Amino acid sequence: MLACTLLILFAGGLQALAVRVQVTWDIGYLNISRDGLSTWRAIGANGQLPIPPIYVTQGDVLELTAINHLDMPVTLHAHGLFQRNSTYYDGPALITECGIPPGSQFTYIIETRDQSGTYWVHSHYRMEGIDGLRTALVILDQDMSLLDEYDEDVLLTLEDWGQEPNNDLMERLQVTPFANLSTDHPTVLINGINANFLQPIRFTSGRRYRLRVVSMSFTYWFKVRLPGHTMQVIEADGIYSQPSTVDGLDMCPGQRYSVIITARESLEFNYALNVTFYSDYIPQISGLTPRYHHVPIVYRKDAPTKTFPLIEDHEVKWADEYAMESRDKQMLLEPVDQHIVLNIKTLINKVGIPNYAFGDYAYNNVPVPPLFTALTTGDMALSPSVYAPQLNAIILKYNHIVELELRNPDTVMVHSYHCHGHAFQIVESGPVHKNSSIPVKRFRGRQPMRRDTITLAANRYVRLRIKADNPGVWFQHCHQEQHSYSGLAFTLIEAPDVMQRTLRVPQEMIEFCRILGHPTRGNSAGRAGSDMTGIKPPLAITGTANSIPDTR
Question: What pLDDT does residue 9 have?
Answer without folding.
Answer: 42
